[in-house]
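cron nightly-structures :: item 1 of 1
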Amino acid sequence: AELGPKITKLLAPGGGWDQTARAMQQALQRDVDFILWLNDDTMLRSDSLQRLLHESNSLAQREGRPVVLVGATGGPDGSVSYGGLVSVGRLRRLTYRRVWSATEAVRCDVMEGNCVLLPMPLARAVGNLDPPYEHAFGDTDYALRAAKSGFTVYVANLKSYGKTGESELNPKVELCYVDDDHNQVRITGTAEVVKD
């Protein structure tokens, strides 16, 4: 279905993760610049796609190659429920914790695929979703394969697509970022509007 002059929604028969893999295969055969994974229960703000595209292009320019860009998703209270994750350590490589930042894109090891922007050169290099994996691990596998192919996975900064506006509505806030040692730092508190 055409959603605009440059956006096409691809549907494949079936359901669940298998349907996603078939739609991805269709997309890989098209002459397009990006593929957007978007869960059917995920709602975007009107300018989210434009902001994600801008951030993807900025990161690609900085990295010198395309990047996987994950959009963190969550509730209207400013909470983040899905997005990018980092491994907690070498001894527990398959245990992850969520990361995000209100101000800058954050590198992550794996992703939850509710909202993911894939530049076509990257998507073609990594290939389709691996059919044996179910929904719960397919997006993790894709991020690991992207990294193995030399691409970086980022979770977009929350401000770039309006998530911080939701946080302003809820005075209880949590700021999260990854420090230089790859540890997630969380600061919680109550927000207030400050004027100069």
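cron nightly-structures :: done
The first strand starts at residue 2 and ends at 4.
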